[in-house]
């Protein structure tokens, strides 16, 4: 968890770093501050040139982790039909996972293609073609007045997660607005982008980061053979689970928005460095053992004031022999037990510290949770077997431990009941944990 000292130091260093870049641009002229993917790059008197070749090309600003603020630059492409795509990438995780706003200069003076001048994409799955087919006119538009196709034009992106306003050539009103970025992360590397077969020129780059917004950072563990959750952008489109993961992610996206949070994914072994900048660790039905190093790192995180939301289910999805989750929660007086002998679908929360009012939630074949303060029960056996409890540590750490997984999969309909309050439940829990 971020300490106040670490947070203030990070804000100070990033403000200094990006204000220097934004005001003088000297460091942006240094090739050492960039890393290129699938292009040859040339730096010449303040102009950065990326050559044309098959595939997309990216030039990432090293060490950048941008969420909110302003990105300004001058861009030039070519009046070459179908072969000039130039823009800015952001929310970058790697060379395949990123968002971008880009331009098609060859459409700037084409009256038949004027609605396709500027485009937003969320890679790898939501490229221009997918967005155009599924959301016509929503993620691309015209520029008025349009620049000359072979000339430099000025671009300003004002990003306030999840919104992106795009201004062209000094316009006082946005040329294009993306109301919601299509991701739950909302931060990452920034870079220069050129599309298939395209070359591009860039200069006068200014990056000014707004560090005033206080976001809650959620880290979801997907490194322990999780049964359901995954990072959808890392999944193959042919994966049979991807539609369900995207559905759940869209619901998690709503939860994150409601509590002013962002979500990242732990895809490798969890360690203290990974946990240093997050507020909530989210673990959902793992089937792989946590190493001794991971257990210690998670305990250190909680003992330092971090929050853990951990969920298991009945023996059907994952057994206690599959994973050592009890090692993670034992120091805080909680343990998972065996299955609850409750077969009636449907459960509820109780009014208390987490929920202002009782909620009706999905519930089916849960696991006993022993210890802590109970707040979730099935409808059949009353309060005999809690399905979720919470704990607060002396140093400010918080834990929510659940033995029922359907509500956290946003299952609003089950066996004839279709009014479960799963979104409300998840918002309340994450809001309490932050």
UniProtKB/TrEMBL annotation:
**IFT52 GIFT domain location, by residue?**
250-335
Quick check: keyword Acyltransferase in the entry? no
An example Pfam family from this entry, by short name, is 3keto-disac_hyd
Signal peptide boundaries = 1-22
Q: Which Gene3D superfamilies match?
A: Exo-inulinase, domain 1 (2.60.120.560)
Which UniProt keywords are given for this protein, alphabetically ordered?
A: Signal
Protein name (Swiss-Prot/TrEMBL): DUF1080 domain-containing protein
Organism from which the protein derives: Flagellimonas abyssi
From the broadest rank down, the organism's phylogenetic lineage runs: Bacteria, Pseudomonadati, Bacteroidota, Flavobacteriia, Flavobacteriales
